[in-house]
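Work Package 3 (structural annotation) set out to generate three-dimensional models for the target panel prioritized at the project kickoff. During this period the team completed the workflow that converts sequence records into discrete structure tokens, so that structures can be stored uniformly alongside our sequence database. As a representative example, we reproduce one entry of 194 residues exactly as it appears in the project archive.
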Amino acid sequence: MSVLVGKKAPDFTAAAVLNGGEIVENFKLSSYKGKHIVLFFYPLDFTFVCPTELHAFQDKIEEFKKRNVEVIGVSVDSQFSHWAWLNTPKTQGGIEGVKYPLVADINKSISQDYDVLVDGAGVAYRGLFLIDPEFTVRHQVVNDLPLGRSIDEAIRMVDALQFFEKNGEVCPADWHQGDKAMKADQAGLVEFFK
């Protein structure tokens, strides 16, 4: 598994579904440069854990928007599968109501570039990458297939990164917005523990 933190995010151009139903053929990740991006991978459309995550991201989309963060999902399904799933009611296992972009990685090249492709299975692990406005990966986490991720933790990491970018102070364990942070020097460490 590659560590992409500190490196430029691999760019891609692929088909995607926007706004819950608009298919575009040339969705380009780098068109979001200048914003924070939460790029997440999930195994497959029409499965069991995946819709819980996609709905959970949609339920918190206003929290991401308040922070000027774009949320983008990726799986190895086609844009047509994404479109069909987006047009299936939640009560029937669908993700109707999800509005953020879903990218089609049918040839699996994006999953390979982010090193989340499961060997021999042809699907992606549940990877999440926080990309800063300069297009550098600042955080990554990868869960195994049966383990859904925490959307609140993704928001917490966005808050921590944006706090650091604005204030130059680092965020200790379990830091949340409004908590005490630390100067990135010995004096700041001493002050934090007073």
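The helical segments are 49-59, 61-66, 79-86, 109-113, 151-167, 186-192.
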